Amino acid sequence: MGFFRSVGVTLEMIKWEHSIFALPFALTGAMLAANGLPRPMQLFWIIVCMMSARSAAMAFNRWADAALDAENPRTKMRAIPAGLLSRGFVGGFTVVMATIFVLAAGELNRLTLLLSPVALAVVLSYSYTKRFTRWSHLMLGLALGIAPAAAWIAVRGSLDPRILILTLAVMFWVAGFDLLYACQDAAHDKTHGLFSVPAVWGIRAAFWLARLLHVAMLVLLLWLVQAFGLGHYALAGVVAVAVLLLYEHLIVSPGDLRRLNAAFFTMNGVISMVFFCFVAADLLLKHSELLHIR
Q1: What is the value of pTM for the model shown?
Q2: What would the pLDDT profile of 166-199 be if each residue is shown by its tens digit?
Q3: How many CB atoms lie within 10 A of CB 294?
Q4: How many CB atoms lie within 10 A of CB 4?
């Protein structure tokens, strides 16, 4: 297989287009930090950081889980177990993406550069957590949840504790939908000694915990609106997220996982984009009102 074809297969394997899950929350963090629009180059390097970090994390996950994927009927046709890519190529791709991430972080400010190894450690270490803890879902949530805090640091060069509210909200949101997604592999995980809530406590328990986490996310988003003094548009965004989450939970059930991919991929991409658009509208409206007053 040629080099460029291998790169294409790798991008398909890591589903790079699903960066839409976390990117809008990172952009929300950046806009909150700037109290409006960040500088264009800040936005550019934040997007590069997000895309490269996620690509490194997903490729590393496929590299680390290649043997497990080969034994799972749902994942045995992924690129490495199917023989479309070698572990060496995927490992090299991971190193390249991680290097791009560090270089891009260095273009933002000194603190982002210093913290870039910590961020990489968080997003890469998730791949091994299923081997020793049932709370790997929260680790995945943290890997995406640090995005808004990282974007805040990228814009401000410091950390405001208020942005950690959004980190927790994203963490609970991701952990909740990962609990649902993991229900597909409950039997496989149990057989192979892997830890996940569906494997350890059962699918019904996973659904209830996912619901609780998503309720907690909504509470945190309301707190975020209050902490930053956001207005009606942001509140409408929280309501929209609540409606979308309700729909997501209505289309799947412990006894019917057939529409799980629709809930996982389509709805979660919509949720992150919708919340970002409402918060962005709120911030831009406030900024324009301030300019008008002046």
Answers
A1: 0.92
A2: 999 999 999 999 999 889 888 888 888 888 899 8
A3: 5
A4: 8
